Amino acid sequence: MSVEALRAALPEYAKDLRLNLGSVTSQSHLTEQQLWGTVLTAALASRGRAAIAELEPEARAHLSAQAYRAAKTAAALMAMNNIYYRSLHLLEDAEYDRMRAGLRMNAIANPGVEKVDFELWSLAASAVNGCGRCLQAHEHELRGREVSREVIQDAIRIASVVHAVAVTLESEELIPATV
Hints:
CATH superfamily: AhpD-like
CATH class: Mainly Alpha
CATH topology: AhpD-like
Radius of gyration: 16 Å
Family: Belongs to the AhpD family.
Helix content: over 70%
Distance between the termini: 27 Å
Structural class: mainly alpha
GO molecular function: disulfide oxidoreductase activity; hydroperoxide reductase activity; peroxiredoxin activity
Protein name: Alkyl hydroperoxide reductase AhpD
Shape: globular
Strand content: under 5%
Largest sheet: none
Subunit structure: Homotrimer.
Low-confidence stretches: none
């Protein structure tokens, strides 16, 4: 199971996704751990069964046990945080921002991997989940740690392509291509 299997499974109308999936997983400014942690986190955030099934074993092969766990932790925490903080943003009531969230997020302080890696994975999940407030917070943290815009952009590109592949394959299960 692999990136290549996913690429082969994409329908002809999604040729651009096939090409993009190949390029974002082979041409990146990210370290190997950052790349595969981003791939795994984005696949989990996308909730696409086919994408997770194909990408998880490949990501696991490239990640230490700690990094694998941290990528899954980033996806899990961002599934919660992205809903919470996106909701606060959409409510447009500053009083909510002054209230204690009351949500446990201990793993953010001690993720078990380099803070930059965990922040990149959290950024990717936040991109998939569409939380502008979280995207800004993670980008700010990364830039404060002198991470280049190119690295940040690569993480977002990976998230966008993995998500698009997941959505496309899920929709193909429901409505197979006829043309």
